[in-house]
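User: Predict the complex.
Assistant: Input components as received:
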Amino acid sequence: MTTYATSFAEREFQVCVVSHLVEDSRTYWVAAGGGPMYAVLLAKRVHAPNAVYVTEDGIIAALPKLPLDPLMSVVSPRPAYRALMWTGMNTIGDHCSVGYMDYGILNTLQIDPYGNINSTWLGSYLVNGRRVTGPGGADSIAAMCWRTILMLDHQRRKFVSRVDFISSAGYLDGSPGARERVGLPRDTGPWRVVTNWAVFDFEEKTRHMRLIAVAPFVTVEQVLDEMSFKPLMTDSIEVLEPPTEEELTILRTGLDVRGQFMDASPRWVERHGEEWVLIPKEEAARERPAWI
Amino acid sequence: MPRQVKILEEGIGEYFKVDPDAFRDSVSKKSRAMEPKLMDEHEAISRFVQDGDYIVWECNYLQRGPSTLIREIIRQKRENLWLAGKFTWVTVALLVEAGCATQADMGFFFSGPGINRAILEDRFKVYEYSNVVMTARLRAGAMGVPFIVVRSLAGTDGFKYSGAKIIEDPYTGRPTVIVPALNPNVALIHAHQADIYGNARIFGPGISDAESALASRRVIISAEEIVDTEDIRHNPKSTTIPFYVTDAVVHVPFGAYPGECGGYYASDTDHVMEVFSALYTGRIGEYLEKWVYSVSSHEEMLEKRVGTAKLLELTRRAIIKEGWKA
């Protein structure tokens, strides 16, 4: 029997939503460490044991030894444990380039209505603002996986009509064939955007981001208020299920055992009777179970 | 009648000069003799890394990277280096803030206030690629060809600030992205084992160890262990890099410190936090003083700054051995 959780971090909710999108016996190229990897590992434990994931450091289909050391998520024995193959970055790129990677899962800082994402520069490039990490492997994941799932925090400054810098390609200007015209593999592109509050897809004709589901603890109005462009909307917007107790137990005892991921969550969510209450991050520290 | 290949679009980024025949010439001058190449890190960097070089390193300062060699470059105050900044975390920031580097081809690096200022003040130039595109460029360099086709990068703003081009592919007629081959002056690679001639073994997954070695004019291998050549011959499938590619072998146990070296030792978590904190608060100078300038060698750093207790702890934490040996 499914028992829904009544107390969780928004970011835990987000990982559970992404994990629900993970299909069994499909291949995933995930950003190493953090939300993308947790989502696949969670899905493998709950409903998709044969989902396969690879990381850019050449690890194919590992059964990682958990928990991972903080920051040691790549070229490292624990995440590489019991893999089917150890290789290098060019080979992972080849596997994706020829079409073996069904899905990519990425974290991102800033997104536009066509799913173009920025991880290079916040502000005016080389003029003001600041350099961030650069795409890492994300450019290749977004270009060559058949479908890409993008994760980001639901904040107005992150949903912008134009990203400061396109680090990884979405549907570019949204025109038909825009990706193919610059040489990217056909029939690829962003597929879902999952935040701590909502899920979006991209409408087939316009390639414009479209709201399809919201978290049970926020309204559609709240979701739209925290975006600086207006997404398209499906006729009936689904209300997502909260995480189950089983999912949270796996996350907290197996994956995020140090609570680092949970710590970075914007808010804590609690159910009081029929109402959901959002608790700001600063106060949420008190609300955590004592064992974390 | 000659026909022209159409260039549909091109980036404005400067790129390290591509010249496969000049690269072959430099390879032709390397000794093929199986002769001992063991030397300490000071000699390896003095002899094989020059001001203005383009350098590539494998993995990074925190993960089976040539951390000792990177610190030695900083200690010897090399200048005007051009960095292959793929899959790198803090290494670029260390080299830039130490005054060693003035430009980089980027895939991924953590930025901080110091490096940000250097970019805005144009003291540090960045050309935009991505990790996989950079390893593709190294693969082209390792193939001895001038460019390689990739199926990514196009459509991004990174493309505009790179040396990439979109051409009409003469075979399919379709738009196709090409990037320039990369033949660095120097590759710095940390291996688990090597013999004194430079036959090197790297265990576990990796980024582009073999490609970087083959693509570079000079190759410095630092190794956790020196093994007998007979040992190498007993398991030739484990050889990642053959001796004739290697110019120097530096025997440095804990050569990836403060990073992890799979199967050998774990990363020093406190040190990792220290270097990240220095990066984010603009105190890389203090970090370098403590870990690089105030000690004369790797050995002195281990002795005075790390200590036996810590080294034993890191070794004890490396409990997974399966697959991390020949």
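The mean pLDDT of chain A is 94.
Let me know if you want any component modeled separately.
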